[in-house]
Amino acid sequence: MYLILAIIIFGVLIAVHELGHFMAAKACGVRVNEFSIGMGPAIWKKQRGETLYALRVLPLGGYCAMEGEDGGSDDPRAFQNKSRIKRFIILAAGAAMNFILGLLMVVCIFATLGGFAAPVITGFMDGCPYEGTFQVGDRFYKVNGERTYFASDVSTYFARNGGSDLMDIVIVRDGEKIEINDYKMELVPYEEDGETRMLYGFTMQYAESGPWAVLKYSWYQALDFVRLVRLGFVDLFTGGAAVSDMAGVVGIVDMMQDVGSAAPTVSIGVQNVLYIGALIAVNLAVMNLLPIPGLDGGRILFLALTWLIELVSRRSLDPKYEGYVNAAGLLLLMGLMVLIMYNDIVRIISG
């Protein structure tokens, strides 16, 4: 069941992304030759007006084929013949739709919760060494430069400090921000139910609830998802993670299946799978806007570069060059996808 749900979620994410491009193109008066969900041979297609609608066999992509998208066209409704602002709107619309979908999925999940753990100190355990520096009611605003939205963010960004126990902390106390720099924070052993646990020794607020809290913390969660993409790239380029640690469609679907199956109830399992789906939706939005050829962000970058070249040289740049660059970028991305998929399959088989 969770495997089917995961595949459906991926299909919806792709469809919503392409629908964003399609709706924006239609609104901006661009001729759309084909709107397709999936790749490979068509299992269903229908011509309606100027647009061919198709559903294809592989649920791993899709496209909104616009007239004059990758080359010149005499059609006044061609993509390249529209103003730059309209082209920007069309290119950014797919990512915007993915982000909105991810946010709405989080709202639906959070609406079922009874409250949210805010990063606000509500008390101290006996012998807590940090009582005095911090006070009840203090809200952790930033830890090591990272904004904290949830109570769990505090310990997360304490841990992401390169192995150092010296923290840069910003708290909000009585409406004012207070900076505490190079402050030593170490886990302290506490006895609980006969077990020794390593804790910081302060408790956090778990009281905010209601419609406003749902909307606020849903927005915070979406921002947290965006930040995860940035932190992932930081880890990738600093050696904290390798390409072999990345997961593609196969790996993510397998993870969704595992997370759903491990849940104590079907309801919680579905929520967990939807939560990962929301994370992927926001990730897709951010990744598609990266300035990499073959992605929407690469095309937006090329749009800006061509504007700058034409402004300086007073000459128009042939759209075919953009097509060449995007085609090369797409081939490289496809190669990376194949490598990641291979790693996913090996990981599943060996696991």
Describe the structure in your own words.
The structure is a single chain. The chain is α+β, with helices and mostly antiparallel strands and 351 residues long. The protein folds into two domains: 2-110 and 277-350, no CATH class; 116-208, PDZ domain (Pdz3 Domain, Roll), CATH 2.30.42.10. It has eight helices and ten strands. The protein has helices at residues 2-27, 84-110, 151-159, 211-238, 249-262, 266-288, 296-313, 319-350; strands at 32-48, 51-66, 116-124, 139-143, 146-147, 166-173, 176-184, 188-192, 195-199, 202-208. The chain has a four-stranded antiparallel sheet with strand order 5-4-6-7, covered by helices on one side. A two-stranded antiparallel ribbon has the order 1-2. A two-stranded antiparallel ribbon has the order 3-10. Strand 4 and strand 5 form a beta hairpin. The chain is globular and about 75 Å long. The mean pLDDT is 86.
Primary descriptors:
351 residues; alpha+beta; Pdz3 Domain; four-stranded antiparallel sheet; two-stranded antiparallel sheet; 8 helices
